[in-house]
Amino acid sequence: MVLAGTVLLNGSQVRPAAEMACLSSEGQGLRVEENSDAKLLLAGEPIDEPVEGYAPFVLNSTEEIAESIAAFNRGDFGRM
């Protein structure tokens, strides 16, 4: 996930801030180049299950994301 700035992944995919990139487990490696003052969150092990993302929500399906957004809007996640 790109937290700030933009990056190139493997020389071609430009990713803006707040966008997540899912990469396959195949291949020899990953090359990351920053285009500006980039901040990245990188993590690792393959989880072998579907992944869907929308805004700050990352779950297994669009249905789960919709349920989580509804729960968030109801205040089920608490207040900050």
Automatic annotation (TrEMBL):
<dbReference type="Pfam" id="PF05726">
    <property type="entry name" value="Pirin_C"/>
</dbReference>
<dbReference type="InterPro" id="IPR053186">
    <property type="entry name" value="QDO-related"/>
</dbReference>
<dbReference type="InterPro" id="IPR008778">
    <property type="entry name" value="Pirin_C_dom"/>
</dbReference>
<feature type="domain" description="Pirin C-terminal">
    <location>
        <begin position="2"/>
        <end position="78"/>
    </location>
</feature>
<protein>
    <recommendedName>
        <fullName>Pirin C-terminal domain-containing protein</fullName>
    </recommendedName>
</protein>
<dbReference type="InterPro" id="IPR011051">
    <property type="entry name" value="RmlC_Cupin_sf"/>
</dbReference>
<dbReference type="InterPro" id="IPR014710">
    <property type="entry name" value="RmlC-like_jellyroll"/>
</dbReference>
